[in-house]
Specification:
The complex is a heterodimer of chains A (about 425) and B (about 250). By secondary structure, chain A is mainly alpha-helical. Chain A is about 75% helix and about 0% strand. In chain A, about 40% of the residues are buried. Chain A folds into 2 domains: about 70-180 and about 285-400, no CATH class; about 180-255. In chain B, the strands form 3 sheets. In chain B, strands 6-9-10-3-11-12 form a 6-stranded mixed beta sheet, sandwiched between helices. Chain B has a 4-stranded antiparallel beta sheet with strand order 2-1-4-5, with helices on one face. Chain B has helices at about 45-50, 75-80, 95-100, 115-130, 145-160, 175-190, 205-210, 230-240; strands at about 5-15, 20-30, 35, 60-65, 65-70, 80-85, 110, 110-115, 165-170, 195-200, 210-215, 220-225. The longest helix of chain B has 16 residues, at about 175-190. In chain B, a hairpin with a 2-residue loop joins strand 4 (about 60-65) and strand 5 (about 65-70). Chain B contains 8 helices and 12 strands. The two termini of chain B are about 25 Å apart. Classes of the chains: A mainly alpha (about 425), B alpha/beta (about 250). The interface of A and B includes residues 212 and 409 of A. The complex binds adenosine-5'-triphosphate (ATP) and magnesium ion (MG).
Chain lengths: ~425, ~250
């Protein structure tokens, strides 16, 4: 053990127990992150499992992940702007318009699916840029800009697709995302790669700290995290790798959408937590004036956030088209509010400056689980909205409570 | 005569119909602490915001190291070696101490944030100020006291090898011990050859550390004094407008 070169702590000192105590302290101080949402997931899962024998079947377990993918992607998209204390109410219809462009190019212009898909993403990028420009450069509040786009783009979808137009998606690679599975072995490989990535990043950070002569947390914490990935990820993959078909042809394996979603979440989190762009997003969300004075190009970063949001929203649109197998004029109208709800339920603060993609993903799973579980119980659709609304209110209340507690520690100074 | 690190000539600034700076001449020298004093609303903060690139001047010439420069945004200011500690500190409460100290100047390695290097340098900077009150450099700024925040803001400016450090009322919110530490730091900065401009309402602080005292009165520079050649009551007379070097300007 080398003696630390510094006398001011970094929060990484002490044994496993010290670290755990410090974690509990942070929880008590209101820094709960996704914990309430994780608790909600577990409670809901137990509740639904008790009420419906079908809930914990292999088929439904897998469905839950497939169903939640669209919302995970959309709420992740929103995180990029919510961190800035902005909002993009047009994220859903941006995806709708992009997919309308996609299907129109294929159906009327005879484009191949790859260029059409690229065109859909370019559409998203342009829309994101225009919204970002109006918000960041012109200074129109994002709520108003994106509400206007939300309304206008519903019209745009109808113009592109015609009243009541429903177009089938026939491109196999697009359909495969939600409907096909990766081989059984690839599912296991996914678990191993995830744990290994976590390990590599952890070791990388530790070696950088060690070379700088800084203290590291007990390495056991890293092993515990990797173990959790192996155990929980492994359990999930084990379930998805079972045959879940109700007919003769076996259906087994992790749906293709799962590794895609994990990859996007990984890259997005990497950008948020380990790059300058991510750091600047949080800084602007925390104190835009301080960010500006620190020389951060606030306008440019704001525009980029809206572009990233739009791109992730288009991915969500692709997932949606893949799942329902068609594109129509009403796609993306209702999902955006669910996306905001998911982010907040997961612990992302609408006040800006706080929240991760993992928060949004867990929130999205909670919301999807409510939909799925109540659907299995054959509750009237109205109940879904009531329960989802209740959960959102609860989450927002917990957030406000936490905010107050950390606020009171501020008031003491 | 020695070339000033920064020299302002004929600086003017107005907000709409209100003329806040009415033709200011001002200079700060390497290794010297220049105190900028004046009553509330005299225009002190406005004068330094122009140097910081936060709020450019309307008119006037800025020379840095003898060469005429344009400071249009904070990045240009920091590129020249100008660092500012604002009255409102301008910290991001949702970020931790290290993240705040490196904000806008993050260290990168292979395109990603080099947290270890930043943490080490931040810790060393804080140690050089003999900061003992901060528990952890990874504390969120929202959990710090006013004095601790001030320390972080000042430590941030010494991280970059600045040629000119501007402090807007650095001791206003501090207790006795921390004021002492900050004044020592200000002196130490200057002894390292940095030009320091310190805005302060506290004349005893000013007389303790400043080499020069510049007095602003209603948007005009009414006096530029050597600390050794003046006294408390004369400075007060300039601040209140009872006296003026400009001679009925
Ligand atoms: N953005 C602005 N818009 C309009 N007026 C402003 C603006 N900023 C400053 N002023 C005015 O300019 C004048 C000088 O303000 P400044 O903040 O420079 O004073 P100061 O000398 O720093 O005062 P204090 O000692 O109270 O900090 C004040 O009358 C203030 O109201
Ligand atoms: Mg001021």
């Amino acid at each position: 053990m080398t003696t630390p070169v510094t006398t001011i702590a970094s929060g990484q000192e002490g044994s496993l127990k010290d670290q755990f105590d410090a974690y509990l302290l942070r929880l008590k101080a209101g820094d709960m992150g996704s914990l309430p949402a994780i608790a909600a997931t577990v409670l809901l899962a137990l509740l639904f499992a008790k009420l419906s024998p079908f809930f914990f079947t292999n088929l439904n377990f897998t469905n839950l992940f497939v169903q939640s993918a669209e919302l995970i992607m959309l709420s992740s998209a929103l995180v990029f702007v919510i961190i800035l204390a902005e909002i993009d109410l047009a994220a859903g219809v941006t995806a709708g318009v992009a997919m309308a462009v996609y299907i129109t190019l294929i159906q009327s212009k005879g484009w191949a699916w790859v260029p059409a898909l690229i065109a859909a993403f370019v559409t998203g990028i342009v829309i994101g840029w225009v919204i970002g420009f109006l918000v960041a450069k012109v200074g129109v509040p994002s709520f108003v800009v994106t509400l206007a786009f939300f309304l206008g783009f519903q019209g745009m979808q109808l113009v592109l697709l015609g009243e009541g137009g429903v177009y089938r998606v026939e491109q196999q690679p697009i359909l495969a995302i939600m409907n096909n599975n990766i081989p059984v072995w690839a599912g296991w490989a996914l678990v191993i790669v995830s744990a290994a990535l976590l390990g590599v990043l952890g070791i990388w950070d530790r070696s950088r700290r060690a070379r700088a002569g800084l203290v590291n947390r007990p390495i056991a914490i890293l092993f515990i995290k990797m173990g959790a990935v192996v155990v929980f990820g492994g359990a999930g993959v084990a379930i998805m790798n079972q045959d879940r078909s109700q007919g003769v042809i076996p259906i087994q394996g992790v749906p293709i959408v799962v590794p895609i979603t994990l990859a996007v979440l990984f890259v997005g989190s990497f950008v948020l937590e380990r790059t300058r762009f991510g750091r600047h997003l949080y800084a602007i969300g925390g104190n835009p004036e301080a960010a500006r004075r620190a020389g951060i190009k606030v306008t440019r970063i704001r525009i980029w956030a809206f572009i990233v949001c739009a791109v992730l929203a288009v991915i969500s649109g692709v997932f949606h088209a893949s799942r329902i197998g068609s594109v129509d004029g009403s796609a993306g109208h209702s999902i955006v509010l669910e996306g905001v709800a998911a982010a907040v339920v997961g612990g992302v603060s609408l006040f800006g400056g706080r929240g991760k993609l993992a928060n949004a993903a867990i929130g999205a799973i909670v919301i999807t689980m409510i939909d799925n579980g109540l659907g299995l119980l054959q509750m009237p659709a109205g109940i879904n909205f009531l329960v989802a609304g209740g959960v959102l209110l609860l989450a927002a209340t917990i957030d406000a409570g936490a905010r107050k507690r950390s606020g009171s520690s501020l008031a003491r100074v | 005569m020695e070339v000033p690190v920064v020299e302002l000539t004929g600086i003017k600034k107005s907000f709409g119909p209100v003329d806040v700076l009415k033709g200011i001449d001002f200079a700060a020298y390497a290794g010297k602490v220049t105190a900028l004093v004046g009553d509330n609303g005299a225009g002190k903060s406005t004068l330094i915001k122009g140097l910081a690139g936060v709020q450019p001047y309307d008119e006037g010439v800025v020379r840095f190291g003898g060469a005429e420069v344009q400071i249009r945004d904070p990045r240009e200011a920091s590129g020249l070696g100008i660092e500012v500690v604002y009255q409102d500190l301008a910290l991001c409460e949702n970020l931790d101490i290290v993240q705040n100290m490196f904000l806008g100047h993050e260290e990168l390695r292979t395109g990603t944030l080099h947290e270890a290097a930043m943490e080490l340098q931040a810790t060393k900077a804080l140690q050089s100020l003999s900061v003992r009150t901060v528990k952890s450099v990874r504390q969120k700024v929202s959990s710090l006291s006013g004095g601790q925040r001030q320390t972080v803001a000042i430590a941030r400016s010494i991280l970059r090898e600045a040629k000119l450090v501007i402090l807007d009322e650095p001791t206003a919110a501090l207790g006795v011990a921390q004021t002492e530490q900050v004044l020592n730091l200000v002196r130490r900065l200057a002894d390292h050859g940095v030009a320091v401009i310190m805005i302060s309402h506290n004349l005893s602080d000013v007389f303790r550390v400043a080499d020069h005292i510049a007095v602003l009165y209603l948007g005009r520079m009414t006096a530029h004094l050597k600390t050794t050649e003046t006294d408390h009551s004369e400075v007060v007379a300039y601040i209140t407008g009872a006296k003026s070097q400009e001679g009925g300007n």
